[in-house]
Structures are given as C-alpha cells and as structure tokens.
Design goal:
Blueprint (H helix, E strand, L loop, with lengths): L3 E5 L5 E8 L3 E7 L2 E8 L2 E12 L3 E2 L3 H8 L11 E13 L2 E10 L2 E16 L5 E12 L18 E15 L2
Antiparallel strand pairs: 1-4, 1-11, 2-3, 2-11, 3-6, 4-5, 5-7, 7-8, 8-9, 9-10, 10-11
C-alpha cells in the first residue's frame, strides 16, 4: 500500500495525560480539541508524515479551578502558547505493528526531540464504507524541559506536582477522500 491522507476522528480518539500529585497519587486529564495531518500507509508507518496539534485551552482534569490554573501563566500560558504540536521526523519499526516515532514536540515556546511508542491496532470499514485505522500512542516528557516549572514544596518533603508527564493517545483515523 502507498501513503494516503488520513484525518483524525475526534469523536473516537483521545489525548490523555497523567502526572504525580504530592508524590503519592496520579492526576489524570485529557485535551478535548486536537487535530492531525497524517500521510501514511497504516500497515507500515516507516514512511509516514505525522503532524499533531493539541489546543491547550481544551484541558479537562474534571476540576475547573485546576484547569484554569493550568491554562494560566503558571503552567501552559495559553494566551501566549495556545497549542502543543508534534512533527514526526523518523519512524522505526519494532515489528508486529509497533513503532518508535521520533519528532519535534513544541510546547510553551520550547521545541525538543521526543520519541513515542506507537502501535497499529488494525483497520477496517465502518458500516458506511469509510476506511478507518486505529493506533495507540504512549510516551512521557519532563515538563521542566519545556519551561513548565511551577511547583510548591511540601512540608513533608518533595513537591506538589511531579516533573514526568505520561502521555497516552488513542487515535482512530479515517482515510481522506
């Protein structure tokens, strides 16, 4: 198969994250608005071009006060840095539909090379004849490397917010006509 254009299906996809709180528990959240441009053969991603954009103002941790704090200048500063983007640059097959996808992640005015593990989950046609493909994505970044350093020391030692952010995506894409 040759590379073709694919459009992300936001109704059947998610962009989620988790981070340590008080060094003892994980807080989870999601971003409700995102988009991607994918030019790929879903069964062989090694020649794919993947561009992903996340609207940071769409953060949802199920707590409005926390979400507003995350949108503020203490964290994402969405007025000045409204999006997080990823552009693939190298994709290596690990076999069995698993890949290491490396590219430039831009967040909070900082761009760094990051690698994410991507698994091709399969493809098929929906009841209306549209071709779909599914992928899962896992990875982690250090928020401090992107200038996201706000924190508060705990009187028992440690910090309020962890540095490592685990990222998890479930993506369903539709073949573009």
């Amino acid at each position: 198969m040759t590379n073709t254009k694919w459009a992300i299906d936001p109704v059947h996809s998610s962009v989620d994250f988790s981070i340590k709180h008080m060094m003892i528990a994980n807080v989870k959240g999601t971003f409700n608005r995102f988009d991607a441009v994918i030019d790929a053969d879903p069964t062989d991603l090694t020649t794919a071009n993947i561009q992903f954009t996340v609207d940071l103002s769409s953060i949802d941790t199920r707590n409005e006060d926390r979400d507003n704090h995350l949108r503020s200048g203490d964290f994402f500063n969405v007025e000045n840095y409204p999006t997080m983007t990823f552009q693939s640059s190298k994709i290596v097959s690990k076999g069995d539909g698993e890949y290491d996808v490396t590219g430039e992640l831009s967040l909070h005015g900082v761009s760094k090379v990051e690698t994410f593990e991507v698994t091709y989950e399969g493809s098929g046609k929906d009841p209306w004849g549209n071709e779909k493909a599914g992928f899962t994505v896992e990875g982690a970044i250090k928020r401090s490397e992107y200038g996201l350093t706000w924190n508060s020391a705990l009187e028992t030692g440690g910090v309020l917010v962890g540095d490592k952010v685990k990222i998890s995506l479930d993506v369903q894409a539709a073949k573009a006509e």
